[in-house]
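Reply to dn_fold:

You asked what the input looked like. This is it:
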Amino acid sequence: MVKKFYLFFIVSSFTFATSFATDFQISLNFRLYGGYSSLNSGDIRKDIQSLDQYYKDWATYYQSRGYSAEVMGGHKPIQNGLGGGGEILLGFSMGDLNLGVGLGLEYFTKTKESSQDLNLRWDQGNSFHNRTRDMEENIGVTGILFKGNFSYNIIPQIAFFADLGIGVYMAKINYDLGWNGKYEYWDYDWYVDSYGYWRYGWHKYMYGNWNLSDKFEISKNKIGFTGGLGIEVSLIKNLSFFVEAKGRYLNLAEVKARETLDYYDSWKVSGRYYSYDDLRYWYSDYDQENWSSEDTLYLYNYYSKARNKTYTFVTANKAEYAKYTNYSDFRPAKIDLSGFNILFGIRIKLF
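and this is what came back:
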């Protein structure tokens, strides 16, 4: 009886070992994917939204004082972007169960451009001040990750899978704001024309143009996490296609930024003659401001007394704005680049 038991044990062990050796496989797989990605810009969105509202409130303010003012266009913060990546995984399979571990490289990007016009007119349409705001927001995120993948074949050609990743994300953000303005100021009164004659009526006594550029450069490396669920379909040997819904956690705090501001306003104004405008003589003048600051990116409140309203903006030059009483509540800005991805890809079994 004992001999039969040992014989059964040996035969069973051999059968299991043979089956395990037959089912267990090691493979090397390459996955390539791309698709939709959401990329939030965190507190930069508050700056964008405040600038849009600031323009609209500015027009309302002038309208209440009899000016013809209108706002056209604007920037609507979006999260739509593109993402993709690739990874190489060492796979371990036994039957319908599959496990893969390896390294991956991911990249996500978003670019948004827009413009907004503010037109102010008064004095029966003669005087005017046109302002245009252009904005460009570029976000690029590169991640180097350690990846894990688990899948189960419900039938030989179709598998459900889950994957996880942890690694270092390198984020770069360029946030550029530009304003351009053109203005003319007219008066209805006595003046001396270009020939030296006294006249009475509409005349232009001042005109000019200005531009302002405010640029932010932000970069930071941060550990992030990613994970997703998907379905994979094998159509031919060693090649399969998959679709995956994936989430990403990447929250940047205490970010450093470089802000560069350039402002230039140049104008010409007519000469004065007995307190009236003399259009025979025009004098040129200008005003400018230039600085660059590298500091923590701050979120702050700006109170407009004229509009009796508070707006929220960002800056990397706290010292410049903290000198004034209408700038307050400076706090480090946060840039949340967490997002959601819908990806399509292929998996190639190398061996």
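The two ends are 47 Å apart (CA to CA).
Hope that clears it up.
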